[in-house]
Amino acid sequence: MMRPMKRLEIVVDQLHLPEVLERLREAGVSGYTLVPNVAGYGDRGDQHADDVSGVSSNTLLLIAVDIETAESVLPELRSILRSYGGICLVSDCQWLEH
Predict the structure, then answer these.
(1) The sheet that has 33-38: what strands, in order across it?
(2) What pTM did the predictor assign?
(3) I need a labelling partner for 43 at 20 to 30 A (CA). Which of 2, 33, 96, 98 fits?
(4) What is the rounded distance in angstroms from the CA atom of residue 60 to the CA atom of residue 39?
């Protein structure tokens, strides 16, 4: 059986990750997958994943939540992204129940 969900892909810098995780938990997100040290290019230029200290590294969060949780967390994420930068992609997905 599969359940409709929303997939959130969030890229934020390592420095602000603890605040993002705290707000996600407060909004009812019960789990996530974290991919550290991601690189890319965007409105802040090249973002490298080879920073020795890790302070300026980006992190990718993959999250699957029900539609109601997504609707409650997105305003919080928008506020964070406006303040600190980053991106959030939202897409429909199916959760394979096991």
Answers:
(1) 33-38, 58-65, 2-13, 87-96
(2) 0.83
(3) 33
(4) 10
**Residue-wise DSSP of 20-38:** HHHHHHHTT----EEEEEE
pLDDT at 54: 53
Q: Is the pLDDT of residue 23 over 70?
A: yes
pLDDT at 42: 64
Q: Which fold has domain 2-96?
A: Alpha-Beta Plaits (3.30.70)
Nearest to 62 by CA among 87, 33, 19: 33
Which residues, other chains included, contact 22 with Cβ-Cβ below 8 Å and sequence gap of 6+? none
pLDDT in tens, 40-71: 666 665 565 555 555 568 899 999 999 999 99
**Residues sharing a CB contact under 8 Å with residue 73, sequence separation 6 or more, in sequence order:** 8, 23, 24, 27, 28, 29, 65
Residue 11 token pair: 């890229």
